[in-house]
Amino acid sequence: MTLNRPARTAQSETIIALIDVVFFLLVFFMLIGRMDATAPFEVTPPIATSGRDMPAGGATLAVARDGALALDNTPVQRSELEREITAALDRDSNLRLRVNAHRDAELRHVLPLVGLAESLGVRDVVLVVTPETSQANP
Q: Which of 23, 32, 52, 96 is the S-S candidate for 58 at Cβ 3.0 to 4.6 Å?
């Protein structure tokens, strides 16, 4: 009695491992990528001695040392700022505005912006600061 073996078919290559690698790379780059808007100029926030972590989301208003402004990485003139904030409020009525001012910026550049945002209806204004480092940890 002879047994007939079925003909061998070529193994199909699996792409499951490749999908896993691509998914891993996607997650990796999403985690290390910068998700918030940066200013088109250097902004070094002041050092805080107290406070809590900054909430996520919202728009970022950057204030340079000389008073130059940028809203979500786009330079904006002070005269256009009211229109830009109003447009952002139209898109999101619960807008959170993060004010990221350079530590050497004068308060006369920063405080009127907070007042303007509140008068336009922004309910949540957050001042961005750098956490104070402990003396024990250099």
A: 96
